[in-house]
Amino acid sequence: MGAVVNCVAYADGRRVAEVKVSQISEVLEQPEQFVWIGLREPDEGLLRTVQKEFGLHDLAIEDAHNAHQRPKVEVYGDSIFVVLRTAQITPDRAEPVVYGETHLFVGSHYLVSVRHGPSQPYVEVRSRCEQSPSLLSQGPGFVLYALMDAIVDQYFPVLNALEEEVEALEEKIFGEEVNNREVIPQIYALRTELLHLKRTVSPLIDACNRLMRFDLAMIHEETRPYFRDVYDHVCRINEMVDTLRELLNSAAEANFSLVSISQNEVMKRLGGWAAIIAVPTMIAGIYGMNFKDMPELSWSFGYPLILALSIGCSSYLYYLFKRSGWL
């Protein structure tokens, strides 16, 4: 079952009172007030009730109910629908990065936030906004900025953790005691995490552009410059993700090169020992053909001479291969 986390009416940047969902339409009739309601995993019945109170579009409600949406900004008449993806790392790091979704309905006199999946509550965001009445008086547009800013800021710890993993992986790759084949699954796991983060961040660039440039009535003119700050953070995170992906690709290429070099070293050793063993094998093969006319067979010094020749040739080859670095 979904739940209403908080539903509060504001006027002139200050909290007026908590509002029941059934009373929202009455509050919206007062032009000097706006309502900020937060929902957590709402069911269809609760969403339909909220839709009726605020007059939200059917397609936006359907997206908010189904979740699993791509980050985007859509305009429905006099309101906008914003989809954002949250990202966070579990404290014990037992799982990879976990993602959730936050859907925001923004109108001139309301903001509805809908959270799906793992995400941090927005109690602190609400508290910070309430501590700045002069900014909160700008209306739901400023609340939209505050929520987007909080969500985007959550990407930095995730990115720092992935950066540390990439650095640790590089140390493993160039460490002599580590088998380079063992890091290949880790490389592909990190590639997957960075790809997911890229898909989460990159659509926000266009979303922030729309919020900055389009003339949207629900966003106060004084609020638009704040979205430029979110845009700058998103661009910075996007560039950092691209840089990490390039570093990871370079690390993967270096790992494959080291594996190839290691294989070449093994082949060189095998080739060197094969050449050394080939000499006594060849000599033994010649004298193992049992020809009658082989004078050395009846010579008393034949056996020690052939034995000495085999050992001498093998020792000389070992010396040459050792000096060339093959052994």
The tally of strands reads 7
* Average pLDDT taken over every residue: 82
Q: What is the 3D form?
A: rod-shaped
Q: Given the structure, what is the number of helices? A: 10
Distance between the termini: 70 Å
Please state how the strands of the largest beta sheet are arranged side by side: 2-1-3-7-6-5-4
Instruction: Write the H/E string, N to C.
Output: EEHEHHEEEEHHHHHHH
Query: Strand content of the residues, in percent?
Result: 15-25%
Largest sheet: 7 strands, mixed
Given this structure, which CATH class of the largest domain is correct? Alpha Beta
Model regions low in confidence, pLDDT < 50 over at least 5 residues? none
Q: Which structural class matches the secondary elements?
A: alpha+beta
- Estimate percent helicity: 55-70%
Radius of gyration: 35 Å
CATH topology category name of the largest domain: Beta Polymerase, domain 2
Number of domains: 2
CATH architecture of the largest domain: 2-Layer Sandwich
The CATH superfamily of the largest domain is known as CorA soluble domain-like
